[in-house]
Structures are given as structure tokens and as C-alpha cells.
Input
Amino acid sequence: QTVYQNYQRIKIQESPGKVAAGRLPRSKDAILLADLVDSCKPGDEIELTGIYHNNYDGSLNTANGFPVFATVILANHIAKKDNKLAVGELTDEDVKVIVGLSKDEQIGEKIFASIAPSIYGHEDIKRGLALALFGGEPKNPGGKHKVRGDINVLLCGDPGTAKSQFLKYVEKASSRAIFTTGQGASAVGLTAYVQRHPVSKEWTLEAGALVLADRGVCLIDEFDKMNDQDRTSIHEAMEQQSISISKAGIVTSLQARCTIIAAANPIGGRYDPSLTFSENVDLTEPIISRFDILCVVRDTVDPVQDEMLARFVVGSHVKHHPGSKEAVNGDANEVILPNTYGVEPIPQEILRKYIIYAKEKVHPKLNQMDQDKVARMYSDLRKESMATGSIPITVRHIESMIRMAEAHARMHLRDYVVEDDVNMAIRVMLESFIDTQKFSVMRSMRK
Output
């Protein structure tokens, strides 16, 4: 007798994080039958159990001139991998260490100090990246209106100020990160694209970088070099956290809940302090307002700082030399080099586990939050931004402040947002606002 069943063919690919550097991730076709159909979407991480099977395809033989078998996997079971598994990898001892760390008074400073310890200075960037790694709390009241919880950071500044270094560091520290550059990534490569399956001649959907980085971090270098068409596709991903596709008869929307950390170079290579931020960067207003934290890295001449920086660089080179007496085994980032915080950084491995634990287990609530403070802050900033004509302050910035306060609370593994968190958020907000002003305005504002 003939049995009729639902049939779906999917293509699975190695997860980009586990592939050895410089190798392309391998992919394999799998066949889902009956109730397994539609059990996973593009961009999901799955564990697939099945039978390795060959099917004879006459067309392949004529193409190759000798008998060839195409192999597929007949799926029996699909397990979706969620972030819960990442927490499952933490042992009880890890959890003890993590909770012990969070009791420390200076844990915030310690975390800031252990972000990219091999880079000297740039405290404001480290602070911003730390908040972005922990992330705020996404809200979805009654399933009607989604508010994103991820914090997006834009680094912009002079060449040679370690912008890409920071991105590379975040890629290592985060549990799920995709690194891409603006020039090499087209709109398709970032969001998703439709292609024809060579065998069945059907249109299939392939997930791009933002979809693969779902629930993780997407790092984009050379953000200013992107074409305009690609930027529009990023607009939606950054605020609505989903990507809608309507191409070749496929109309669907994919989840892209990821933090975006981008690095851009100013127009003409160097940042000109006499102009405002938006005149310096070749980015449109809508996209600038979607970033919560804007960091401007300036290469200023300061004899004392420069000497310290030089010593730091030379010291780290000496320590990493293979033949050196005090050679340090392990990651380049792990060397305890003197930092500007005056506290001892946390080892990278523990920091990574700490972030995973905090993101999964801690969900800070806002009830005792000082609402007047944020409201006052917002109206003052708006007044200033009107007066100085710099980046426009929009309602999004209120949400940004709240997100940063949540991230700071999460960093301390607190269940509620306290005043400290709000102050920190306001501080980061102010720094990012003042940094993007013209030089003349900046001096008066610092006071």
C-alpha cells in the first residue's frame, strides 16, 4: 500500500561558533516527515537525531558520468537548543563562585575592568560594552507591544584607537556572537536571502548574520561603509527585532533579537571635534537614534597618558613573547596588567559564565525606580540638544536609560533596579551625549 506523509527538506549547518577558524561551516540536507515538519525555523540551533541514508538520483549519474549517491539524514527527533542549555553547563561550583562574586561591593568596577583587559584606558567604552553584554529586560505586555531589551552600541573614532579590537574581544566573551564587516555584508548577508535549491528547484530561505545571532550579539565593523539599501534592512532589525521578508513568493518574518555593536570611522578618517556627531559620521539620523550608547574615541595628545599607554603596550608584548622568562600561558586577555580602575579584573572564563548566568536567571524589575529623575534628565537633555543642534534626543533615549539601568542591576544580580543603577545609566547616557557634542559645547557641558 502507499503511505502519504507530510514532507519537508531542511538544510542544517554547523553552528558558526564551533567551526575552526578559516574553515567554511559544512552543511547537510535532512528530511523531516509527518509530525516533525515545521518543528524548526531558519536560525534555530537544533540537535538532530536520524538515520544517515542515501537516495539514488538518476540525474546525478548523467551529470557525472558514473554512479553517484546523494546522502541525506532521515530525521527521527529534533531537539531545539535554547539558552537554557548554556546555563545547564554551569556546575554548582560555578554558581557558587558567581553568587559569591556578586556579593562584592566593587563587582561593577571589576566587571568593567575585566572587559578587554589587554586594551588600555577607554573606560567609557568598556562600561558601554559591559552593559551591552548583560542587556536589559525585553518586555511584552499582553503580547501587544514589544519593547526591546538589547542595548546597541556604536563606536566611532580616530584610526588606531582599538575599535575593532573591542569587537573581536566581545566576540570571544559572548556566548553567541557573529562578526561581520559592513563592506563585505550586503543586505542579504545581514538579514536573510532566498535562493533556489539546486535539486528540487524550489525557493528556500537562508538565514543571514542577524538571524544567526538571535539572542546573541552581532558585531559589525566598518559600519559606515555599508550601502544605503543594507542600512534600511538593519533599521527594522534594530528596533523591532524581527526581519520581514517578501521575496519570490516567500512572505515571512524571522526573529532577530540581537544586540548590535557597530564600529564606524568618521568622514575623512579623523574625527573633527568642531563639528557635531552627525556631521562627522556618514550615518542617517534614524539609525543613530537606534543606538543606545554612542562612544566617540578621540586620539588626543596627553604626555602622561601616552607614556602610560606605551608602557602598557610594551609590557604586554614582553609578557607574551614565547621566549620570555615571565611568559604567561593562556589567553592574551588574561594577563593581569595594571589597569586604570585600581581593582583586580575577573578571569575571562568566569566572566563569561557570569554573563550567561546573569542573562538567564536574573530579570530585574522596575518598581522602586526614581521616575522623576529620569523624566527630569530627559527634559534637560532635550532642551540642551535643541540648543546645541547635536544628535536629537528622542523618546527612544528614555527606553535606553531604563535598559541600561536594568543591565546594571543584572550585573549585580539584583532583582530590582535601585538608585545606583539609575545613576549609572544617567552617567553613561550623559557621557555618550557629551562626547558627541562640538568641542566648544563640550567644554561648557563638562562643567
The mean pLDDT is 71. The first strand starts at residue 7 and ends at 13. The chain is about 40% helix and 20% strand. The CA atoms of residues 241 and 397 lie 17 Å apart.
